[in-house]
Amino acid sequence: MATISDVATLAGVSTATVSRALNGKATVDPELSARVVAAAEELGYRPNGPARNLRKQETAVLALIISDVENPFFTAIARGVEDVAHAAGYSLVLCNSDDEPDKEREYVDVALQERVAGVLLSPTGNTDTTELLDRNTTPVVAVDRPLPERTSDTVLLDNRLAAEEATLHLARRGYRRIGCLPGPSGILTADERLAGYRDGLRSAELPGSTTLVRRSRFKAEGARQSARSLLDRPDPPDALLVANNVMAVGVLQTLADLGLRPGRDIGVVAFDDAPWTTLLDPPLTVVAQPAYDMGAVAAQLLLDRLTAPGEPPTTQTLSAKLVVRGSTTR
Amino acid sequence: MATISDVATLAGVSTATVSRALNGKATVDPELSARVVAAAEELGYRPNGPARNLRKQETAVLALIISDVENPFFTAIARGVEDVAHAAGYSLVLCNSDDEPDKEREYVDVALQERVAGVLLSPTGNTDTTELLDRNTTPVVAVDRPLPERTSDTVLLDNRLAAEEATLHLARRGYRRIGCLPGPSGILTADERLAGYRDGLRSAELPGSTTLVRRSRFKAEGARQSARSLLDRPDPPDALLVANNVMAVGVLQTLADLGLRPGRDIGVVAFDDAPWTTLLDPPLTVVAQPAYDMGAVAAQLLLDRLTAPGEPPTTQTLSAKLVVRGSTTR
DNA sequence: TTGTACGCGTTATCAT
DNA sequence: ATGATAACGCGTACAA
């Protein structure tokens, strides 16, 4: 592949002039500049990124490490991040940690080694990752969940309040035995949603009971098992609060298998307003998270940090919106 | 951030020894090696990627440029690619071209500049991209669609056959006026699906008619408009073949708006077996693409190319599977 | 086995 | 305005 000195030779100038011409630096003689551009074009010259990054000690690349590329919530975040990053001249690379602490650590490691300008992360809770980040000065923004044992710029959702609202909504609709599938313990969004669920039960003066809670991974399969185990009880729940849209798929499949119709037979609220939720009969009541905005805000926070490294970290908490549909109407 | 010479100084050895010890090269005195490792750990040393890549003239990073991160089909491809890449010691970075030729070109440019080991791409059809790739030796694998005007390793699906089968299925189920929403013209998958649809009509001895075809982007909104425009006709179709799952959402919403029940009132087949398609009532008949496998095969093709650069490019064509469900049962 | 020294391709500094 | 050259951090050929 052609290098800068190939271009220089062809254009009959020095490498310094090529660099200046191609980067629009200083004042370069228009004629020379034209020669350089022509030569670069002819050779298909493309600056060597590693060399440039090495020399400049910086890159225009941001890394976003999300826990599930197949979850529309996270891909919507990615869109938000990308739009903002792109507008500011940064490229975004996406990595999928699959909610596995090891993979997360690995990708953070790669990002750090490649000296990306900044990292956006929806942490699994791996303290190794935190430690890794602590030892470096690369700016980090946590999205959706905070970093464990570390302050950083953070974009969160008020999960607790959202879960409480959803639970209260179910109670107001007359459901009395409300179950909850909050997701895995140890992940803050899951724990918060569980706490909010309990708040809601308390406010509604409904009896809380751990027998109505089943924890699992944020996957369809886990949710299927949890739902099945709840509904097979002698005293099954008459409503379910489900922690995300991937789990919702599992739950709804289980309900269908059991011949239970959402709304009439069992109230259902799930987090995330996926496009398909309106297609169901009845359509699904959801807690809509402003995923795109969360991504956009996170990216902006990171960009701000890059230009003003001194400032103290901030946490922005966005609000969800309950979208009431048929699955909570008897 | 600590450099290799910082480590060398702390361990009381030369940088060469540090390099050798950390990379497990040659034979290094165990005691020295231990000192090096300890020093590296103490300093939180992390090799400088750009410097290493510059020196080695290679990276262990693959780039996957897909046209829609919010489409489960492409994210499933990404999973397939990632699993294979990861197992071979490569990291994967994901870029979202949003089916915009300019963005695609830009990301290819970035990937080339960063000297990634290889590129996987679901091309928009941008010939600028092809030209860019042609001028470089970086291995490329096209996924889902071929590169325009260029041979390369390619992983395709037999879209034409799949569309024909789907159309024939509709015909056998008694639908007579079958419409088609194949996606944008100029994108091969769309054109092939349209061709297969016409094949199917011919085989079934049904009259083909361009008035039953509406082209749009691979988006829900485009599909909504297309569906509406078809169904508002005095002689509307009694069945629809829809080119992907994102468009299917738009179509199904439109049917619901019009009070049309899939299966009974109008047959519906869509490409892509998204998780939610079984939740509908009636569940959706789909053309299931082996997306994960397509990604895995593509990654393997790329890895093979990296180890054996000389070989002629190959094209692998996988087959789709028609999954019959209620939306094609009257 | 270990250390010295060079070069990867680029940008920035310093003369000219 | 332009050119020569040093330096970024690393790996490796060569010398010891």
From TrEMBL, chains A, B:
GO molecular function terms noted in the UniProt entry: DNA binding
Keywords: DNA-binding, Repressor, Transcription, Transcription regulation
Superkingdom as given in the UniProt entry: Bacteria
PROSITE patterns: HTH_LACI_1, HTH_LACI_2
Stretches assigned to the HTH lacI-type domain: 2-56
InterPro entries per record: HTH_LacI, LacI/GalR-like_sensor, Lambda_DNA-bd_dom_sf, Peripla_BP_I
Record-linked CDD domains: HTH_LacI, PBP1_LacI_sugar_binding-like
Name recorded for this polypeptide: LacI family DNA-binding transcriptional regulator
